[in-house]
């Protein structure tokens, strides 16, 4: 009988060790939220930026956009002087989104993309000027991965140099 109780005890110890090993794979490190009861309390869900140990938050959001800000509609006039400038931020899916802009956008006159060419022609209806400023429509006109400052300085000069002085819009 004593031999049988040793086997049961050994089985329980093995089960406990197995559970500890699985827990280490599921929740490595000391920051395991599965083991903390505070993670399930309503106060923990109230402010996601408050640290558990009440130290000052390392990340404080700079922009708190309201739902109306995020859902606002922008009127884009393809026949006028409106211009979409695509700012490519690296490692955020920008190449895929840039290709989507030139290939799949539903406008009165979408971009013309030819097989084998990387650049597409995105002209306004009845005009020979572009409505989209991106690497897939104008190439690397402002340099490789131009940031906001470079685009702000470069885009007006690149776009306006293609127009006659009297036809340039005030920006």
Automatic annotation (TrEMBL):
GO molecular function, one term: heparan sulfate 6-sulfotransferase activity
Signal peptide limits: 1-24
UniProt topology in membrane: Single-pass type II membrane protein
Primary localisation category: membrane
Keywords attached to this entry: Glycoprotein, Membrane, Signal, Signal-anchor, Transferase, Transmembrane, Transmembrane helix
EC number: 2.8.2.-
One family name in Pfam for this protein: Sulfotransfer_2
Cellular-component GO terms for this entry: membrane
Chemical reaction(s) catalysed: alpha-D-glucosaminyl-[heparan sulfate](n) + 3'-phosphoadenylyl sulfate = 6-sulfo-alpha-D-glucosaminyl-[heparan sulfate](n) + adenosine 3',5'-bisphosphate + H(+)
UniProt cross-references to InterPro entries, sorted A to Z: Heparan_SO4-6-sulfoTrfase, P-loop_NTPase, Sulfotransferase
Location in the cell: Membrane
Enzyme class: transferase
Function per UniProt: 6-O-sulfation enzyme which catalyzes the transfer of sulfate from 3'-phosphoadenosine 5'-phosphosulfate (PAPS) to position 6 of the N-sulfoglucosamine residue (GlcNS) of heparan sulfate.
Family statement: Belongs to the sulfotransferase 6 family.
Name assigned to this protein: Heparan-sulfate 6-O-sulfotransferase
Species this chain originates from: Tricholaema leucomelas
């Amino acid at each position: 009988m004593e031999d049988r109780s040793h086997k049961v005890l050994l089985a329980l110890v093995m089960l406990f060790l197995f559970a500890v090993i699985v827990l280490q794979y599921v929740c490595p490190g000391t920051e395991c939220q599965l083991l903390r009861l505070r993670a399930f309390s309503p106060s923990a869900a109230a402010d996601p930026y408050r640290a558990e140990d009440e130290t000052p938050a390392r990340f404080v959001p700079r922009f708190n956009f309201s739902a109306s800000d995020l859902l606002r509609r922008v009127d884009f006039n393809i026949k006028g002087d409106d211009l979409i400038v695509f700012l490519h931020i690296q490692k955020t899916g920008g190449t895929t989104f840039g290709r989507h802009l030139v290939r799949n956008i539903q406008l009165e006159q979408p971009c013309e993309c030819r097989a084998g060419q990387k650049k597409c022609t995105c002209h306004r209806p009845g005009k020979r000027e572009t409505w989209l400023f991106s690497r897939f429509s104008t190439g690397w006109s402002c340099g490789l991965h131009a940031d906001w400052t470079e685009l702000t300085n470069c885009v007006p000069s690149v776009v306006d140099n293609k127009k006659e002085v009297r036809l340039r819009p005030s920006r």
